Amino acid sequence: MSRFSLAATAVLPAILLTAGIAHAAAPSVTATHSLVKLKPSDPPPAETTARIAAAANELESFQAVISGGDSGVRGVSAKISPLRGPSTISPESVVLYRQAYIDVRTPSDDNGMRGMIPDALIPNVDPYKGEKRNAFPFDVPAGETRVIWVDVHVPMGSAPGKYSGKLELEGDGGFSASLPIELEVFPFELPSNPSYATAFGLSWNGTCAGHFGDAWCNGDEETFDELRQLYGMAGLDNRISFSKVAGAPVPASGGQVDFSRYDRTYGPLLDGNAPTRIPGAALSTIEVWQRNPQAEDYAAWAQHFKDMGWYDKLFDYTCDEPPLTCEWSDIKPRQDRVKGGDPTMKSLITTTVAHLKNHGLYESTDIIVPVVNFVEGKVGDYAGDNSADYHQAKADGKTVWIYSSCMSHGCGNTVSGEYGGDPDLHGWPSLVIDHTSLQHRAMPWVAYNFGFTGELYWDSAYSFVTKRDPWTDQYDFTGNGDGTLFYPGRPDKIGGSTHIPVESLRLKVIRDGIEDYEYLTILDAFDPDAARDASKRLFPHAWSAGDISPEELLETRREVAKQIASHTKKTGGEVPPSDLRPDNGGAFGSKGGGSSGGGGGGGGGCSASPAALSAGALLALAPLARLRRKRS
C-alpha cells in the first residue's frame, strides 16, 4: 500500500555478444508496488529502489521482480537485511514469499485476465511453524520474470521516520544483486484489531479435504482442530475474521452444550492470545455453530460467551440470500428461537432493507448485509444510490455490512433470480483471481463511502472441497477463485514436514484495503469532511475500481496519512472518540474512545504484546505457541 514507485535494478556485468558492439540483456532485479499482477511474460518494471510507507503495526508489501534476461538464471535465493532508521526492524518482522501462478484458461468475465496469473504465495520460512519451505531456490527462464513478495510488519511502537535496508539475491553462475529498500514509518499506529468488521466463511470440511482428501482428516481430531487454528491465525495475520472458523459443530442437546473442545481450539483466537504476526489480533465475529439449535441452545451460547467475554462477537447467521437458501417464511420462526434464547443475540440476514420490510422482518433483524450491486446499481431496480435505507437502519440501532458475490463477474446459470448477475460487470469490487488488485482492495473504500462498517464473504476454501487440485483449478460459480482465498500448503507441494495455509496475493491486498479503511476512520475522527472527500474522490461509485490507477489509490492513501500525521502531532498521538472505531474488539459493541496511541486489545487501541500475557495465559497457549516460528 504505499507510494510506490518501487523498484530496483542490479545488473550483472555485460556479456559481450559480438566484436565488442552488442551486449546481452543480463539477469536483473527491479521492484514494484503491491497493486499490479505480473505474468512471467510481462516486461519487468524499471525502478531501482523499493519504496514503501506504513504506520506502526501495519503490514506493507512490495514485489521484487527478477528478470532472466537473455540467458536466464538458476538457483535464485533471497534474504533481507534489518531495516535501520530511528530504530531497527528485524528480518523476523518480514516474510519472503515466492509467487506461484495459476493458469487461467477461462476468464471469469470479459474483464478477466488470461494466462499465468500470480496468486499463491509460498513462504521461504513460514510464519506458522517456522519451517523452511521450497520457495527458494527457484529458476528464472530466459525472457521471463519471477516475483518475490516481500511482506513487512512494522512493529508496534516503531519510531517514525526513514528506514533503509536491502534485499540480497544470489543465484548460480555468480549471479548476485542487492535491491535497496526505503521505508517511511508514519507517526501514528494502527490498532491490532481493525475497526472494519469482517465475517468471512471457511468451509467446515475444506481444510481437511484440501490437505488430506477427507473432510474429517481421517478421524484425527487433533489435526482437524490444528488446521482450523492455523487458518484462523492466517486470517488474523491479514486482519480478517473467519466467523465460520469452527469446523466441528458444537455438541448439544436440550440446552446442554459442551464447549470444552471449542474453547480449547478457538479460545485463543477469540481472546487475541494466538501467536499471530500482529500482536493481540482477535476474531471480531463468530457464528453460532451447532446443528439445529433451539431456544435453550441459543441461551447456552449466549451465557457461555458472556462468561468468556466473547458475546460482542457472536451472531446467528439466520439466512443467506432468501429465498435462495431458505424461504422467507422460515426466517421468523428461527429468529424467534434466537431471541427466545437471548433477546440481545444478533440475527444476520444477507438481503436488502426493502425486502426485510416487505416480509415483516426488519424489526427482528439485527445485522443487514446487502450485496454491493444492490447498494448502488447501474441499471434496473437498484439503479442509483440506495444507501439511505442503510443509514436509516444504522440510526435504528442496526449493524450494516456489505458483501460481493459472483454478481461482480457474472454468475452464469449458477444462481437464479435477482442474484443471477449484473449486465455491466466493469469495476465492481471482486475477489476472483483474474480481476485486478484494485478490485480486491476496493470494498472497504466503498463501504466507508456508503456508511457500512464491515464486510461478509461467503467462503475462503470452497475449491478445497469442489476441486481435485486447488493449485491448478479454483473455477467455481463461473469465477476463478470465487470462494477460495487460500491454497492447501501440503508438504509434498511446498516442502517442510507440516501442513500450513498458503495465503493468496488476493488475501494480502484485501488486508491492505482494510488498513486503508483504518486510515479513513482515524482521519474521520479528526476531520470527517476531509476523510469523506478523499475517499469519494477516489471511489465516486461502487464500481470505480475499474476507472482508477494504482498510483491514484496509493497517492490518496499517502495524502490521508499526511493529514493524520498533522493532527496526531498536535494531540500527542491521541485520536478522538469516533462511532467508526469500536473500543472493545467486537463488531457490535460500544463505539468511541478508541485511540491508536494506547489501550488494551480492543479494536480502538494498541493490543498488549505477548510479553504482557499472564503465566496462566501462556500455559494455555502452549499448543499454539509450538506452531510458531523462526522467520527470515
Provide an overview of this structure.
This protein has 632 residues and is an alpha/beta fold. Helix content is 27%, strand content 22%. The strands form 9 sheets. Strands 1-3-10-7-8 form a 5-stranded antiparallel β-sheet, covered by helices on one side. It has a 5-stranded mixed β-sheet with strand order 2-12-11-4-9. A 5-stranded parallel β-sheet has the order 16-17-18-19-22, covered by helices on one side. α14 (528-538) packs antiparallel against α15. The chain is globular and about 75 Å long. Residues 1-22 and 589-632 have low confidence and may be disordered.
Low-confidence segments, given as residue ranges, are 1-22, 589-632
Mean pLDDT: 90
Q: What share of residues are in beta strands?
A: 15-25%
Instruction: Name the shape in a single word.
Output: globular
Strands side by side in the biggest sheet = 1-3-10-7-8
> Structural class of the helix and strand makeup?
alpha/beta
Tell me the total number of β-strands. Answer: 28
The percent range for helix content is 25-40%
Radius of gyration: 24 Å
End-to-end CA span: 22 Å
Major sheet description: 5 strands, antiparallel
Number of helical stretches of at least 4 residues: 17
Describe the structure using short key phrases.
single chain; disordered C terminus; five-stranded mixed β-sheet; 28 strands; 632 residues; disordered N terminus; five-stranded antiparallel β-sheet; alpha/beta; 17 helices
